[in-house]
Amino acid sequence: MATNGSTSAIEQARTVLDQAYPFLQAPKTLGDKSSVAQIEGIVAALAILVGTFPLLARITGPEVARNE
Questions:
Q1: How much is the pTM?
Q2: What's the distance, CA 60 to chain centroid?
Q3: What is the DSSP letter of 27?
Q4: Average per-residue pLDDT in the chain?
Q5: Which has fewest Cβ within 10 Å: 6, 14, 46, 66?
Q6: Number of helical H runs and strand E runs in the chain
Q7: Percentage of the chain surpassing pLDDT 90?
Q8: d(Cα 21, Cα 65) in Å, to the nearest integer?
Q9: d(CA 12, CA 19)
């Protein structure tokens, strides 16, 4: 459904789509979808970061320190 981009037009389009297809997820704009992608790209980065913690602990732990 095309709109002129105003907030009221977008909300009217969402209402029409929500009433026409109540069993589907709430309608989203392209801006909504990109914010979801950003929340995903951040969760994935944090998962990778946390996944490296055990390796970091093995490399820098006190048992691997050399005292000669």
A1: 0.44
A2: 32
A3: P
A4: 82
A5: 66
A6: 3, 0
A7: 18
A8: 63
A9: 11
